[in-house]
Amino acid sequence: MTVTELPSAAPVADDLLRQYANVATSIVSDNLDRLPGAVGLLPFHAGGQLLGTALTVRTRRGDNLAIHAALRIARPGDVIVVDGGGDTSQALIGEIILAHAESLGVAGFVIDGAIRDVAAIKASKLPCFARGVTHRGPYKNGPGAINVDVAIGGLVVHPGDLVVGDEDGVVALSPKVAADILPGIRAQEEKERLKLEGFRTGARLRAV
Length: 208
Fold this sequence. Notes:
two-stranded antiparallel ribbon, single chain, 10-stranded mixed beta sheet, alpha/beta
């Protein structure tokens, strides 16, 4: 069976990526009315923010032919977002695919499905989010599609979306929406900073 491949969307602008560096997914979520965002996916890598442009993949459950096809067109900074139907019976990626992606400059993976070789993934700084773990490997028969709208843990991700992930989870949003909510994000970051600073100062004063 074949993999349908549509042209990649324009990458998210470098300036917008810089604006979102180190922004917590919780704050992004709050400024999206706490509605969008993937649920049920966990980070498995050594730590660090996931940030980049969505390169979307839809695949048959337990089959990673389309993921290999996506790696052939992946650009530095792309996040490979895989709609595997939430199935955890077969792993869609493991250490070899992760190493291949890292050599291409891929920014990370979001897998609505399972992964394997978790020890190697946990030692890697390449961000990898997934629904589960299994030792059972994938089929490579297809079908699949690349650069189509996908659903990841209840979150619809469009090709070219800005993808942000951290220890709390993953959110994705269009570059336009990402730019529009930046003032609200900055205001919330400052509000929370002042509140935390006040608590710390107050705790020190009470201890004196």
